[in-house]
From TrEMBL:
The chain crosses the membrane at residues 12-31. It comes from Takifugu rubripes (Japanese pufferfish). Keywords: Coiled coil, Membrane, Transmembrane, Transmembrane helix. One of its GO terms (cellular component) is Golgi membrane. The keyword Transmembrane applies. The gene is golim4a. It comes from the Eukaryota. This is Golgi integral membrane protein 4a.
Amino acid sequence: MGNGVCSRRQRRIFQCLLLVTVVCGMFYGGMMSYEMHKQLRRTEAMALKYQQHQESLSAQLQVVYEHRSRLEKSLQKERLEHKKAKEDYLSYKLEAQQSINKEKNQHEDLKKQYYDLQDQHQAQGDDHNRQLDEHRERYDKLQQIKELEVSQLKGGKTNGLEDASSSFVSIF
């Protein structure tokens, strides 16, 4: 009879230990789930921010393309005007030397405007390329941080997430 009582006690202790282990495991699982959901919300917020930034850059790029299209139309119009001015120059050469000089000056002004617009367009193109390169750099850095976070999440390291998050904040 002594063996039966001892075995029941041991069984109760074992059951209590098993229950405590299950409760601790569930608590740990709940905490991990909470942390993962929190990290997911942060990641979604960052993704939204980058999507908005990308949309902004796309809108800016569209404005640049529209401006370029207007400049090309303006240039084509100026070329046609120049051609007409040249024809007028030949037809009215004998009539009025003074008007010819005036048209010549107008042509030079248009040419100067064309080169000024061309230089301005080049500068805007260079600025756009620089901004695009900066965006790509930031995107690459973010991608590296995300890959680090994913690998750390797979490895179960939470301290590394805090380091990666702080390095992400330092980028911006």
